[in-house]
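May I ask for an example protein's residues together with how it folds?

___
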Amino acid sequence: MSKLHIQVVTPDGLVFDGDAGFLVARTPEGEIGIMSNHLPLIVPLAIDSLVIKEERGGKIIMTIAVNGGIMEVRDNQVSILADSAEQAGEIDLDRAMRAKERAERNLEKAKKDHHIDNMKRAEVALNRAINRIHVSRK
């Protein structure tokens, strides 16, 4: 069975570069699984985990917290251009918890002040922090 070659890149550099049999990602429309010989695809990514496995239902090679981006699948090559991404083992859980608390405070203040833009920014920051916490615990 052929493998996928997966690259996860952010503005800060390469986060993952390797081969796998199966990839699970979340788009704004829901979860998607990618196996070898998948049809060509370009899709936006949601703030969520990216799970790279040896094969479908198999051992997890890597879990990555992805904070939005674009995924392209073509000829068993998966290119992910993420706004930011961190491997589970590199996430500072204490820092992520502080970011979550800060985002919750900012969200409450924005709601109280009826400031829509600040509320949306705080919601995104909260989602990112929760994603990092969730992925770090996998």
Notes: The CA atoms of residues 98 and 129 lie 9 Å apart. The chain has a mean pLDDT of 93. Helices lie at 93-113, 116-136. The beta strands are 4-10, 13-20, 22-27, 30-35, 41-53, 60-74, 77-82, 85-87.
